[in-house]
Design goal:
Blueprint lengths: L2 E3 L6 E3 L1 E4 L20 H13 L4 E3 L8 H9 L9 E6 L7 H15 L4 E9 L1 H9 L2 H11 L2 E8 L3 H10 L4 E5 L10 H10 L4 E4 L13 H8 L7 H10 L4 E7 L3 H10 L10 H16 L20 H13 L3 H13 L12 H5 L6 H12 L1
Parallel strand pairs: 3-4, 3-10, 4-5, 5-6, 6-7, 7-8, 8-9, 9-10
Antiparallel strand pairs: 1-2
The protein binds NADP nicotinamide-adenine-dinucleotide phosphate.
């Protein structure tokens, strides 16, 4: 296992961090699974295996597995395992409507985890508006009080918004770490590589989530992409290529890997035994670029999410719909993306709300035939 300095905090962490958002699930009598029903024995076995094999960073959150991830993680950290790791969890800021809510939620999390303190306490999934809202509720005083009382050690945040929002949040407080979504497809998405380098330039350790794009870079690999990977003289799995691309960046401190089986965990730990920064050659980086371009060539709609079309007067979330549609095609993941689309439907933002006013088409810099493409996406996703 490779270890990297956690910024200037004076300790090292394993480059592989155990993500506890996709733990193994119980198979119910009818053969189905329910994400809130973790296969506790197997999950604990996996967390122990990870720690026994050098992993010392564990990531969970209030909401994972319907609230049960913290409970199972806490059980796994009994019998001396707690002392061997840095534990990260996240405050569900969307449940906080007052200062007292912050304190109540933190105490609840400490109780669920059965620990006296949390190493990294992240404000979960910050975006521009959430950050403004909780700043007004004095979240910074709350964090400082929590550090002073010893309930948490290091405040941080996880992030889902655009690059400018990322930079302004980074600049707004003396963060001890941050967590961003990054993989070779999302190089320029959300905080992206530029955000990674921005945080790095300020000495803020960056933890990576969704390194395999939630598994999409590991499964259903199209033949032409597999051939490209295999064109290199050293044969590697697509998973290894994706992890290597990330740990090549010296600014990356920890890569969280969400694993659903013991086999995946063992494979990924093995891959991280080579996790040296600046270890990829130009030839290897070129192959990743070509694979990325090939994935991108499979997109159905050339939307760059510039948001010029927004807000839609009928509430249709146009860039999100195109992103879901493109993901479904690129990764042959219609079932998974249909679930994402259903969430938009529940919020009244799906394509069926389009009244064909054409306002979006008149401003789209890519000249996309938005009305037709929305119909196409709706049909494919429903
Ligand atoms: N703060 C936030 O907003 C936020 C958001 C997302 C994630 N996170 C954190 O970041 C962690 C990592 O993100 P992620 O879970 O999305 O990571 P990921 O690595 O992008 O995706 C994990 C999935 O990839 C597949 N996989 C992993 N290893 C594999 C292997 N060796 N072979 C084949 N498939 C493999 C598995 O999916 P299948 O078995 O289903 O194929 C696994 O569930 C999470 O667990 C969570 O702790 C935080």
């Amino acid at each position: 296992m490779y270890y990297r300095d956690f910024g200037n905090l004076g300790f090292k962490v394993s480059t592989f961090g155990m993500g506890c958002m996709r733990l193994p699930l119980q198979v119910l009598p009818d053969g189905s699974t329910d994400s809130s029903k973790i296969d506790e024995a197997e999950a604990i076995k996996m967390i122990h295996y990870a720690i026994d094999n050098g992993v010392n960073y564990i990531d969970t959150a209030y909401g994972y597995h319907g609230g049960n991830s913290e409970i199972v993680t806490g059980k796994a950290l009994k019998n001396g395992y707690r002392e061997k790791v840095k534990l990260a969890t996240k405050l569900p800021v969307w449940y906080a409507n007052s200062y007292d809510d912050f304190e109540r939620l933190l105490d609840e999390q400490l109780a669920k985890l059965q620990v006296d303190y949390i190493d990294f306490y992240l404000l979960h999934a910050l975006n521009k508006s959430r950050w403004e809202k909780i700043k007004n509720l004095n979240v910074i005083s709350f964090l400082e009080k929590a550090v002073a009382s010893g309930k948490i050690k290091y405040p941080g945040f996880s992030f889902h918004d655009d690059l400018s929002a990322f930079k302004s949040i980074i600049d707004d407080y003396d963060w001890k770490m941050c967590q961003i979504q990054l993989n070779f497809i999302d190089e320029d998405y959300q905080a992206g590589v530029e955000g990674l380098r921005y945080a790095g330039s300020k000495g803020i350790p960056v933890v990576i989530m969704e390194p395999l794009k939630g598994g999409r870079l590991a499964r259903n690999i199209p033949g032409d992409i597999r051939n490209l990977w295999d064109s290199y003289h050293v044969k590697r799995s697509p998973v290894e290529w994706a992890f290597r691309w990330l740990y090549n960046f010296p600014e990356v401190t920890v890569i969280l890997s969400g694993v659903s089986t013991m086999e995946q965990l063992k494979e990924n730990i093995e891959i991280f035994s080579k996790a040296a920064p600046n270890s990829m050659t130009e030839e290897e980086l070129n192959i990743v670029d070509k694979v990325k371009a090939l994935y991108e060539s499979k997109t159905r709609v050339g939307c760059t999410a510039c948001n010029y079309c927004m807000p839609c007067p009928s509430g249709v979330d146009i860039p999100r719909i195109f992103s879901i549609y493109n993901n479904a095609v690129m990764f042959d993941d219609f079932a998974g993306q249909a679930q994402q689309y259903k969430m938009l439907t529940d919020e009244g933002k799906d394509a069926s709300n389009c009244v064909e006013c054409g306002q979006c088409e008149s401003v789209c810099p890519q000249n996309i035939e938005i009305i037709e493409k929305l119909k196409e996406a709706h049909e494919a996703l429903t």
